[in-house]
Known about the structure:
Oligomer: single chain
Shape: globular
Amino acid sequence: MSETSEAVKQKSGFKAFLERKDIVVSVQRYVYDAFSALALGLFASLLIGTILDTAGTLTGVSFLKESGTFAKSASGAAMAVAVGYAIKAPGLVLFSLAAVGTATNQLGKAGAPLAVFFIAIIAAEIGKAVSKETPVDLLVTPLTTVIAGIGLAALIAPPIGDAASAVGGFVMWATELQPLLMGAIVAVVIGVALTLPISSAAICAALGLTGLAGGAAVAGCCAQMVGFAVISFKENRWGGLVSQGLGTSMLQVPNIFRNPLIWIPTIVASTINGALAASVFRFSMDGPAIASGMGTCGLVGPLGVYTGWVDQVAAGLRPDIMPFDWISMLLICLVIPTVISLLVAIPFRHFGWIRKDDMLLER
C-alpha cells in the first residue's frame, strides 16, 4: 500500500514538474503549433532567400543575390528557433536551438526539415527541463540543449532525412508514372492540408515535393484558396476575396465544421486541377519545395514555379520561358479553380446544400 502511495506521489510530482516547465505533450502543440512554425521558419529563410536570389539573377544586382545566399544558409537555425518559439522555449533554450538546427539541417540533407522538426522539439524540451534549475544556468542550459540536440542530430537526422526523401521520391516517381491519378491525389491531400490547421508548406518541404508532384500540390492549394474566395464572394465581397485568395483558405475552417458540404466544390476543383496540371499541362515545381504547399498565399506558389523556370534557363535545361508556360500558370493557378468551384457551388446553393451565409467569415 505504501509503495502504491509512493508511486502516486512520484507521478503527481513529475506531472507538477512538467506543468512548471510548461512541457505539454499534445497534438495541438507538437503538430499544429510546431509544424506551422517550422513552415514560417522556412519561409523567412529558404523561401525568401530563393526569391532574393532569383531577383538578383534577373536584375543583375549582386547585393540581392548575396542576401538570398545568406538567407538560405540560415534555414536550419530559423526552423529550429521557430519550433522552439512555438513550444514556448525560454530564451537560453531558444537561442541554443540555432546551433541544433544548423547541425540537423546539414546532417538531414534533403529531408532536413522533418529532422529539424523532431530534433528541435526534443532538444527544446530537454533544455526547458534543466532551465533555471542550477545556479549556473547560463552555462548548463545552453550546454545541455546544444549537446542533446547535436547528439540526436548525429544519431537520427540522417535516417529521418533519408526516410522523408524516400517518401517524397516515391510520390514524385508515382506522379511521373501515373500523372492523372497521382496528380489528383496529391492535389487533394495537400490542398486539404492547406485549408486545415496543418502546414501544407511544411509537409511539402519535409518531403522535398517538387517536379510534377510539386506542381500538382500547387494546383491543389490554388484550387482551395481561389475556390473559396470566389464561391464565397456573395457573402464576403472583396475583403473575403483578397483574404482567402491571397491569404489562406483556413479562414473557412469554422464554417466547414458547421457545414462540411461547403468544402465539396473546392475539393472537386483540387481533384480536377491537380489531374490536369500533372497529365495535360505537365506543370512542374522546380523551385523550392516549400512553395509547393503555399498556393496563391502571397503568390508564393506561382513565384516558386517561376523561380524554377529561371533556374532551368540559367542552367541551360530550357531555352527560355515560353508563352505556354505562362498560359498554364494562369489556367492552373486562377482560371480552372474559379470555373470548377463555381460550377459545383451553383447547384449546391440551388438545392440548399450550401445556404446563405454558410461561408460568411465574420460572425
